[in-house]
Amino acid sequence: MESVRALIALVRANEDIAAHGGRCSPESIATAEEVMGLAFPPSYRKFIEEYGTCAFGSQSFLGIYEIDGELWGSHGATLEAREEGMPNHLIEVAHDGMGGTIALDASQPDADGEYPVVVWEAPDQPVLELLAPSFGAYALDVFQQVAERKNG
Q1: Angle at 39 between CA 38 and CA 42, to 5 degrees
Q2: Quick one: CA dihedral 7, 3, 25, 118, positive or negative?
Q3: Residue 149, phi then psi, degrees to nearest 5
Q4: To 5 degrees, how large is the angle CA 118–CA 119–CA 124?
Q5: pLDDT digits over 15-28, tens only?
Q6: What is the pTM of this model?
Q7: Residue 40 CB burial class (10 angstroms; 0-12, 13-18, ≥19)
Q8: Mean pLDDT of 71-86
Q9: Count of CB atoms within 10 A of residue 17's CB?
Q10: Sheet containing 129-132: which strands, arranged edge to edge?
Q11: pLDDT reported for residue 127
Q12: Is residue 129's pLDDT more than 80?
């Protein structure tokens, strides 16, 4: 959770390159989880609670947000990816820009309830590439790189 707190602080310190949807209610999060049949891990839940969804420079992460009373975001993208063969234990959170889906692997929770971040390429590629041990760690690294390019 420390990494997601650092992520939130980084976004706040760089609001000029950030675009986010605002806080997401516990009820909306619960609805999204119910639709997917999976719970969000703590760091991703905190990110969604704080920002709903967030773009930071050229990088962005899906979250949960509402448009005209309808929920959009990670849960909907996850359901669509499942139709394309993505395993049911993955939660889509972003795209890697090269055709891959950045996902949280709910089949491998750690002692803190965090899911590893993996990239899923296609149904015929069962091996998932591990990117980070948690959403917070992964997102912080990605956003730090953006901030360094901005300030560098």
Answers
A1: 150
A2: positive
A3: -65, -40
A4: 120
A5: 999 998 888 999 99
A6: 0.92
A7: buried
A8: 92
A9: 16
A10: 90-95, 101-105, 117-120, 129-132
A11: 60
A12: yes
- Lookup: tokens for 142: 């990605």
Question: Does residue 110 register a pLDDT over 90?
Answer: yes
Joined tokens for residue 112: 């803190």
Classify domain 2-151 by CATH architecture.
3-Layer(aba) Sandwich (3.40)
Question: Is residue 65 over pLDDT 80?
Answer: yes
Task: Quickly tell me which residue has 């390019």 as its tokens.
Answer: 149
Cα gap 21→66, rounded to integer Å:
9
Q: Collapsing DSSP states into helix, strand and coil, what is residue 85?
A: coil
Alpha helices in the chain (DSSP H): 2-13, 26-36, 42-51, 74-83, 135-151
Q: Which residue has the tokens 């296609």?
A: 122
Say which DSSP state 92 is in. E
